[in-house]
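STRUCTURE:
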């Protein structure tokens, strides 16, 4: 937030930035497209759905039903659902070139790919009764995403595809949602075949960076600075900076470092020529309450439901004076995890503690040079992460076919 305010003041002083600082990179056309248009731009089939949650939020879900070369056919394709992280949007899975974007790679590998958008981001700002201008609309955190959003999305996917189970891939908060939902909701647990998690977040005991500073702010000051509604919306100013200023020679390194200061400093591993795409939809916005929930996790050193601020209010919501914990030892779904050594948010020490609690880890990989966003935008993400996800998926499909064929032969 502070870097945006500083940028506004600076532009007010210097006037027209385009006159003073020459362009060094051409603008990418995808920077002005929505998620469906980005999918179609590369020649992939695109579908869009709206999901209504039990508490009235209307979420946009995008779908790539098949790849460019393996067109539609009557055989049902296995489903992979991708859930983005905090402040991101579904576009994060398709922002690089098709040979290094997980959404496109999965579609070309023969999978039916679905992309989620969390409530409150730029593509999921609707409700049956509440207005985004109201405080009530923003009264949610990842608790509600786990309790209402993920079950509603999975129900839609299963209805549309006639599949009983889906593969889940989460990044950052997308992993938090999965751990919370799978540990508490048997229907979600039974619907997920394999739980793939990159840069996972549960406890945050060793988090570093600006978020750690926010956790130390007094409650009153936090409210003065951020209010009680939306946090970091995808505003015109954000889009202008991402689409125009970050392509200029003067601002290029500033924009690169803004990404790295929150994700984790390392040798720049994302495609700098596509930074206008990264920043055109991201940050996509969330609620202040969602941020506060993560800050509570830092201060309490517990992976638990949102603390409403008093024993009386917690009794109202949970029938107990303190928020109930999310018990990751109950996540019995087969789980594969990738985590990075330069990640300021998903610290390796916290991930290893998470791994010690999960009862069914089928794969784990530590990538020393990876920060928090390398898992979605890294130039070498295919070789370090995506190829392994696809390999595990393919192996699981082969195992399922063998079991099915054995069953037929036994019959």
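SEQUENCE:
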């Amino acid at each position: 937030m502070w870097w945006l305010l500083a940028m506004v003041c600076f532009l007010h002083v210097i006037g027209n930035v385009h006159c003073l600082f020459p362009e060094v990179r051409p603008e990418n056309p995808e920077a002005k497209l929505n998620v469906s248009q980005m999918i179609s731009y590369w020649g992939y089939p695109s579908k869009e759905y709206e999901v209504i949650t039990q508490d009235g939020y209307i979420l946009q879900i995008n779908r790539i039903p098949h790849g460019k070369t393996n067109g539609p056919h009557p055989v049902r394709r296995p489903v992979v659902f991708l859930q983005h992280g905090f402040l991101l949007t579904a576009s994060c899975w398709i922002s690089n070139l098709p040979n290094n974007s997980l959404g496109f790679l999965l579609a070309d590998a023969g999978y039916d790919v679905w992309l989620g958008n969390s409530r409150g981001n730029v593509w999921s700002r609707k409700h049956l009764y509440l207005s985004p201008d109201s405080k009530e609309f923003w009264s949610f955190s990842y608790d509600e995403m786990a309790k209402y959003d993920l079950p509603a999305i999975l129900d839609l996917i299963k209805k549309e595809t006639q599949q009983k189970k889906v593969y889940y891939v989460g990044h950052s908060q997308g992993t938090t949602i999965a751990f919370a939902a799978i540990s508490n909701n048997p229907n979600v647990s039974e619907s997920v075949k394999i739980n793939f998690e990159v840069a996972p977040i549960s406890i945050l005991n060793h988090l570093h960076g600006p978020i750690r500073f926010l956790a130390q702010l007094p409650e009153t000051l936090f409210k003065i600075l951020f209010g009680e509604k939306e946090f970091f919306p995808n505003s015109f100013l954000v889009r202008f900076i991402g689409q125009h200023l970050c392509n200029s020679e003067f601002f290029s390194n500033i924009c690169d470092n803004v990404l790295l200061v929150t994700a984790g400093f390392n040798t720049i591993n994302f495609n700098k020529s596509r930074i206008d795409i990264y920043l055109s939809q991201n940050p996509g916005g969330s609620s202040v309450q969602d941020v506060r929930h993560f800050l509570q996790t830092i201060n309490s050193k517990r992976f638990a439901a949102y603390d409403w601020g008093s024993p009386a209010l917690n009794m109202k919501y949970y029938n107990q004076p303190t928020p109930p914990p999310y018990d990751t030892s109950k996540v019995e779904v087969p789980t594969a995890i990738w985590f990075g050594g330069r990640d300021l948010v998903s610290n390796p020490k916290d991930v290893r503690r998470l791994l010690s609690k999960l009862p069914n880890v089928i794969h784990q990989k530590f990538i020393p040079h990876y920060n928090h966003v390398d898992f979605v935008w890294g130039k070498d993400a295919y070789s370090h992460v995506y190829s392994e996800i696809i390999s595990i998926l393919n192996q699981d499909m082969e195992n399922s076919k063998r079991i099915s064929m054995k069953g037929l032969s036994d019959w």
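REMARK: DSSP finds 17 helices and eleven strands in the chain.
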